[in-house]
Design brief:
heterodimer, A: 255 residues, alpha/beta, Rossmann fold, 2 domains, four-stranded antiparallel sheet, 10 strands, B: 317 residues, mainly alpha, 76% helix
Chain lengths: 255, 317
C-alpha cells in the first residue's frame, strides 16, 4: 500500500466575509505527482499559502507524514519536509547559483550554525555531502553551466529552475510547485516536465499548481479541481478531462 | 579582488595603524585616532545589522552609552576589576538588545528602525534624568584606567591606550569577518536580499536578525566601555540619536556590507568634522553637505567605489 505524505482534511480559509476555501480535502501519496487546477479565484493560491504556512487556516487540518502542521511556522514545515516555490521567480540576486542552492541545504544540516563561524564542531563529511547534492541538483535542473554566475545575471527561466533546485535542496518529502510553467517557452516546458518526472523518481512527491493544461495532463498521476473555493473533482487525468463539472467550470469544450 | 591581494591590503592597513602613533606629531590627532578606533568597533557592529542584514538600527550610540555606564557603575559600586567590567559591559548591552530586538524583529520592515530610534531616545532621557544612578548631565568622573598604577603596562599613556584599542578593534574586525564569511553570514545577507525566500527555505529569519542585532549591540557596548575608561569621564551627550546617525553614516560612507568599510567610515566621521573647523559655525552644515554628496555620488561607499574602479582596471590591465 502506498503511504500518504501530505493529507489535507476539511481545510477552510476565510478573509473577512470571503470564503476562499471551503472544506477542501485531498492527499498526496509517496512518489506521486498531484495536480491542483481551477479557474482564477478558485482558491489554488490560498491552498498553497495555507499549506506553506503563510497564513493559518480558519478550520481544518494539514498532516505531513501524519504530523499536524497547520499551526507551525513556515520554516518548521520546511524542516519537516514540505518545500515550496513561488509564482514569480524568488531568488537571492547577489549570490551565485551554487551559493543559493547551498543555502537551501542549510535546513538539513546537523552541525550547529555557529560551527561555521569558528570552524570547529562540524559534522564529518557534511560539507562533502552538501556539495554532492548541490552538484546533482545543478545537473537535473540544467544549471551546471551557470553554477558560478551571479543569480541576477541568469535568465528568468533559469531563475525559475533555480527556485525549484533551491526547494529540493531541503530534501523535502513533498514539494509545492506554484505555477512553475509561467513564462516558460515550449522547450523550457519540456525540460520542466522532465524535471518533474526526475523529482518523482528521486522519491519526492509533487503538488503542482498550473494553468498549462497540456503540462498538467502529461505529468500528473491525479488531479484535484477547485472552483469557488470548493473541490469539484478528483481523479486521474483522463477522468478529469471527461468530467462534466470540470468542463463547465474550467476546461471548456475545446479541452 | 583576489584573496591574496586582499590579505596584502589588510596587512598594509595593519602596518599603517601600528605605525600611526609614530607618524603623528600633534598629540590631539592621536586622541582622535583612539576615538576613531573606538568607532571602528561600534561601526563594525552597526555594519552587521545594517550592512549585511539590511535592517537599519538607530540605537548604536545608545548601546555605547549602556556599555559605558555599565562598566563605570559596576566598577564604582561593586568595586570590580576594570578588565572584568569591560567584559561584562557588552553582556549587559546584549540583554537590552534582546529586549528591544525580540518584539521588533519578529516582523518585517520598518518597525525595527522606529523601535530602535525610540529606544535610543529612552536611553538618553534615562541617562539625563536618573540622577541617583547616572548623575544626570554632570556625568560620571574618575572612571579608572585598566591595569594598576605601577603595572608593567601604563594605560594612562595615550599611546599605550591607542595600541590597546587597536588590538581590540582588530580582534572585533576579525570576528566580524569570521561571522560574515560563515553560513550565518550567508543567511544574514540572504535576509537582506529576499526575506520571504529565507522563510521558504526553512530558515527562521527572525532568529538570525536577532543574533545580528544582539552581536551588533555587544560591539557597541564594548566600544562604549573602552571609551569610558579612555576618557575617565562620561555624560549622556555623546550617546544620543545624533551619534547613532554617525554610526549609520560611518557604514554608508565607508562601504555598507564590506569589512573595510566601517574602518574607513569610522575615521571619516571622527576626523572630517575636525578638518572642517576652518568653516567655523558653518562646520556642521558643510559636514552634512559633504555626507549627502558622498551618499549621492558614492552610494556603495568608499570601499564599494574603489572596488568598482579596481575591477575596471583589472579588466583593462
Amino acid at each position: 500500500m502506498t503511504r500518504t505524505v501530505l493529507r489535507v482534511e476539511g481545510l477552510c480559509k476565510s478573509f473577512g466575509g470571503v470564503h476562499a476555501l471551503r472544506d477542501v480535502s485531498f492527499r498526496v501519496d509517496e512518489g506521486e505527482v498531484l495536480g491542483l487546477i481551477g479557474p482564477n479565484g478558485s482558491g489554488k493560491s490560498t491552498t498553497v499559502n495555507t499549506l506553506a504556512g503563510i497564513f493559518p487556516p480558519t478550520a481544518g487540518q494539514i498532516f505531513l507524514n501524519d504530523t499536524a502542521i497547520e499551526r507551525m511556522p513556515e520554516y518548521s514545515r520546511v524542516a519537516r519536509g514540505l518545500a515550496r516555490t513561488f509564482q514569480t521567480a524568488s531568488v537571492f540576486p547577489e549570490f551565485t547559483v551554487r551559493e543559493q542552492i547551498t543555502l537551501g541545504c542549510a535546513v538539513t544540516l546537523k552541525s550547529h550554525p555557529a560551527s561555521s563561524i569558528f570552524g570547529f564542531g562540524r559534522k564529518a563529511g557534511e560539507a562533502e555531502a552538501t556539495a554532492a547534492l548541490v552538484a546533482d541538483l545543478l545537473r537535473i535542473t540544467g544549471l551546471t553551466p551557470v553554477a558560478d554566475a551571479p543569480v541576477a545575471t541568469i535568465s528568468s527561466a533559469q531563475q525559475r529552475f533555480l527556485m525549484i533546485a533551491t526547494a529540493l535542496a531541503a530534501r523535502p518529502a513533498v514539494v509545492l510547485l506554484d505555477e512553475p510553467a509561467a513564462g516558460l517557452v515550449a522547450h523550457e516546458r519540456k525540460t520542466l516536465s522532465e524535471l518533474i518526472g526526475a523529482i518523482r523518481d528521486r522519491g519526492t512527491s509533487v503538488l503542482v499548481i498550473e494553468h498549462h493544461m497540456a503540462l498538467i495532463m502529461e505529468v500528473c498521476d491525479r488531479i484535484v479541481v477547485l472552483n469557488f473555493g470548493g473541490k469539484i473533482a478528483e481523479g486521474p487525468p483522463a477522468e478529469i478531462r471527461a468530467d462534466k463539472a470540470v468542463i463547465d467550470a474550467y476546461l471548456g469544450e475545446a479541452a | 579582488m583576489k584573496p591574496g591581494l586582499k590579505l596584502l591590503v589588510a596587512g598594509a592597513a595593519l602596518a599603517f595603524f601600528v605605525a600611526l602613533p609614530q607618524l603623528i606629531t600633534v598629540k590631539y590627532y592621536l586622541h582622535l585616532s583612539v576615538l576613531a578606533l573606538v568607532w571602528v568597533i561600534a561601526a563594525q557592529g552597526q555594519n552587521l545589522i545594517q550592512g549585511y542584514t539590511g535592517y537599519v538600527s538607530i540605537v548604536q550610540a545608545g548601546f555605547m552609552g549602556i556599555g559605558a555606564y555599565s562598566t563605570a557603575l559596576m566598577g564604582l559600586h561593586f568595586d570590580l576589576p576594570v578588565w572584568l567590567t569591560i567584559l561584562l559591559a557588552p553582556c549587559v548591552t546584549a540583554i537590552f538588545a534582546l529586549a528591544t530586538g525580540y518584539p521588533s524583529l519578529r516582523v518585517k520592515g520598518h518597525y525595527f528602525a522606529i523601535v530602535t530610534l525610540a529606544f535610543n531616545m529612552v536611553i538618553f532621557i534615562v541617562l539625563m534624568n536618573f540622577h541617583q544612578l547616572t548623575q544626570g548631565e554632570a556625568g560620571i568622573t574618575g572612571i579608572p584606567k585598566p591595569g594598576s598604577r605601577d603595572g608593567w603596562i601604563n594605560f594612562r599613556d595615550r599611546e599605550v591606550y591607542y595600541y590597546f584599542v587597536l588590538i581590540v578593534a582588530v580582534a572585533m574586525t576579525a570576528l566580524a569577518w569570521l561571522i560574515v564569511r560563515s553560513r550565518v553570514g550567508q543567511t544574514l545577507m540572504s535576509i537582506r536580499q529576499n526575506e520571504d525566500l529565507v522563510g521558504a527555505i526553512g530558515i527562521a529569519a527572525w532568529k538570525y536578525k536577532l543574533f545580528a542585532f544582539v552581536v551588533s549591540a555587544m560591539f557597541a557596548g564594548l566600544a562604549g566601555a573602552l571609551y569610558a575608561h579612555y576618557q575617565s569621564f562620561i555624560n549622556p551627550e555623546i550617546f544620543g540619536v545624533a551619534q547613532s546617525l554617525d554610526a549609520i553614516l560611518a557604514v554608508i560612507v565607508g562601504g555598507s556590507g564590506t569589512i573595510a568599510g566601517p574602518v574607513i567610515g569610522a575615521f571619516v566621521v571622527v576626523f572630517l568634522p575636525e578638518y572642517l573647523r576652518f568653516a567655523d559655525s558653518f562646520r556642521l552644515i558643510l559636514y552634512g553637505l559633504l555626507l549627502v554628496l558622498a551618499t549621492i555620488f558614492m552610494p556603495r561607499g568608499i570601499v564599494g567605489t574603489l572596488a568598482v574602479v579596481w575591477s575596471k582596471l583589472e579588466r583593462r590591465g
